[in-house]
Amino acid sequence: MLVLLYGVQDLDNAVAIAEKIRLAIEAPFPSDAGQINITISIGATLAQRDEPIDAIIARADMAMFEAKREGRNQVIQIPPPPPPPSAPEQRIHA
User: From CA 1, how far away is CA 40, in angstroms rounded?
Assistant: First the structure.
């Protein structure tokens, strides 16, 4: 499952939201077959301006697989790469 959150300003906020999702899914619920327990591993990251969606999804996938390797049922974050440096300002000398 992929969840995109518009307006999240920092990775800490994204992780807090992911943790709320994880806890909601983790809560046991009754069924006709008995109590059902489900857990989820979540990878969290942020998008950079003009970053290809494939790169964002790949980074979130890496974080999710790391959460699974680390024992499952947790949120792992991978920060986005730093933005590219701005082009140097050019000045015209007269």
Answer: 10
Q: Establish if 82 belongs to a structural domain.
A: no
Q: Please give the residue range of the domain that contains residue 52.
A: 11-29+37-77
| Number of domain units in the chain | 1
In a domain, 5, yes or no: no
pLDDT of 24-41, one tens digit each? 999 898 999 999 999 999
The number of CA neighbours under 13 Å toward the Cβ of 69 is: 8
Distance CA 44, CA 72 (A): 14
Instruction: Please state the pTM of the whole predicted model.
Output: 0.80
